[in-house]
Amino acid sequence: MTRSARRVLGILLSATLLAGADVACDRALAPDALIRVDQVGYAPGETKIAYLLSPRDASEVRVTVLNAYGKPVLNVQAGTNRGPWNAGFPDVRPIDLSGLKQQGVYRVRVEGSVRAESPPFLVEPAAELFGPAARDALSYFQNHRDGADQVPSQWQRKPAHLADRAATVYERPSFDAAGRLTADLSPVDGPVDVEGGWYDAGDFLKFTHTTAYALSAMLLARRDGLISDGLAAETAHGLTWLDKMWDADKQVLYTQVGIGSGSTDGGFLGDHDTWRLPETDDQLDVRPGDKRYFQRYRPVFRAAGPGEPISPNLAGRVAAAFALAAQVEAREQPDRARAHLDAAAGVFDLARTENVGELVTAEPRSFYPEDRWTDDLAFGATELALAGRALGDPRTREWTATASEWARRNAGRGGNDALSVYDVSALADAEAIRLLGGGRELLPDMRRRLDAGMRTAAGNPMGAAAGNGGYDYAARQLGYAATAELYEHVSGDERYAAFATAQRGVVLGVNGWGTSMVVGAGTTYPRCPHDQIATLTRTAESGLSMTGAVVNGPNRADRVHELQATSGPATCRNDRFAAFDRDDVHFADDSRISANTEPSIDFSATGLLAFALMARQH
After folding, report:
1. E-strand spans in 130-186?
2. Shortest CA distance to 584 belongs to which of 487, 480, 486, 468?
3. What is the C-alpha to C-alpha distance for residues 571 and 552, in angstroms, rounded to an integer?
4. Is the pLDDT higher at 78 or at 12?
5. CA torsion angle 273 275 277 280 (round to 10)
6. 161 vs 177, 199, 204, 580, CA distance in Å?
7. S-S: 500 plus which of 356, 484, 557, 577, CB 3.0-4.6 Å?
8. For 324, phi and psi rounded to 5 degrees?
9. Where in this chain does the record put each Glycoside hydrolase family domain (predicted)?
């Protein structure tokens, strides 16, 4: 029997035997409290904190851990009340399960003034738990490929958007506050071949900004040997598209394929105006002026005119992705590696570093409102120097000096954010330490970011560094976990190990709703993602819901209410989480609610890197 089969059998056995034990114990008393655990599991040596959510005082409860056969193996005490979760659960207490060292399947039972029982969870080596989670994140990318190059899967993806092979380039458009165009698109160049790549999120847009971030995370995992199966093919797919988005001859970086919303006058429809499978766009019989013309013949936009300075955030992260590709290819594909190194240098050299103004990310910018850029330049320069070192390039000394300067400037900026698509300082710091050694200025920068997260977590009822919800919530939690793992790797300092485990746990079930925010991970996870491919290929028999996708998670209540009121009937909806909502933050497993259940490549790339880093724990 394979190890995965043994795991499934163990969970089923645990669920069956413990359910029977529950009936035998006391048929009259049903659980009235809740226990939240990391539903993927814990490594044997990790600090393991679960949480009890109780409707009343739980100071006198008895806590027992049972193995797969219902046998008690550990007795612990519930901790001090950390304050209310919501009106229904005013008493929240940590339960320290760190005494569980033996591999196996377990549940936690609480008895006394309240009763509760946790879902089953595993204690296994980190590689067994989080290696599969990282590979599942990779499958999300495989199933969100655009273009002709598709891989066989249960989603039965078909080639799509082949008209991108001869696309027209337009001037950067202007938008109103709602993100709709206020003027006609104005063509400036073309045709250009921008076929391929990945869909950015639940829609079919493609962005250089988020693709470069996702590629960088994947290439770091590939370079350092954190994931093997499938990663080479997927990074090659992404790089093929990114290569097309940089025209070295014209000195132009293209930023986007497709347009999200249509025009204010209703003259044409954008990508977000029609719910469909991507291959249907290729079947549209449209001409210029038709409403759906830009869904088949998708516009391309550029960061700046030919040879003009490029927004530094884009220049830095695109250069980093190309330079990481060069490092991965240096030994076995040196000619291709040198081509990617030259592409990285060409993009980086065009970075605007004075009078920067508003950063370019997406059209409209409100999709990704980034306001930092020194981190991207530090990241890009560092990867250029590392690639130059690997290839023996004579420009390496210059790039190393540039990397040192930008790393110092970025660390001096004083930011407090962990890794995300908006701030790659954690990657820039860790990679600069790899390049320069020491880390006298850079390790304090990483610690400052982690310490800020620890302060927030200390005051949060569930120990969450990103609070109780908000935009990019799950990705921010995973960003803290990844930052802590990167810090430990470059410093040898384990002070943030328990913090990393806790932040991962929030994403995998240790939250007020008791749901994993990674599709397919754990026992409870979103079944109704706001994702066109997942929704339109799902049937009652298949239950397909895009395994490996990291969704946003809980978000602002007002935004959730707005989408519920304006989005029409749900094609897939699960109301089981409403009792756990707070006044300020809600979570609905509902295909209409993009603010909760939409996955994206930047969320999933952060998850891929965080899980891959955690899988290498001893």
Report:
1. 167-170
2. 468
3. 19
4. 78
5. -50
6. 29, 11, 9, 41
7. 484
8. -65, -40
9. 131-606
CA dihedral for 547, 552, 557, 560, sign (positive or negative)? negative
Could you give all domains of the chain from N- to C-terminal order, each with its CATH number? 3-124 (2.60.40.10), 128-508+602-615 (1.50.10.10)
Q: Decide if 512 contacts 85 (C-beta within 8 A).
A: yes
Q: And the tokens for 181?
A: 């165009």
Report the distance separating Cα 298 and Cα 366, nearest Å: 20
Q: Is the pTM of this model over 0.90?
A: yes
How far is CA 326 from each of CA 223, 295, 392, 393, rounded to the nearest angstrom? 10, 34, 12, 12
- Give the span between the Cα atoms of 389 and 495, in whole angstroms: 32
What letter would DSSP give residue 119? P
Q: Which two tokens stand for residue 422?
A: 């908006």
The token pair at 236 is: 């090659």
Under 8 Å between Cβ of 85 and 53: yes
C-alpha distances out from residue 386 to 232, 325, 400, 443, Å: 20, 11, 8, 19
User: Would you list the DSSP string of 371-397?
Assistant: ---HHHHHHHHHHHHHHHHHHT-TTHH
pLDDT tens across 313-322, in order? 999 999 999 9
Instruction: Report the distance separating Cα 543 and Cα 535, nearest Å.
Output: 10
Does 364 sit behind a cis peptide bond, omega within 30 degrees of 0 on the bond before it?
Answer: yes
Distances (CA, A) of 331 to 68, 243, 390, 396, 526: 48, 20, 8, 17, 42
Residue 97 pLDDT exceeds 60 = yes
Q: Is 500 within 8 Å of 89 (Cβ atoms)?
A: no
Helix (H) or strand (E) holding 194: none
Place of tokens 């399960």: 97
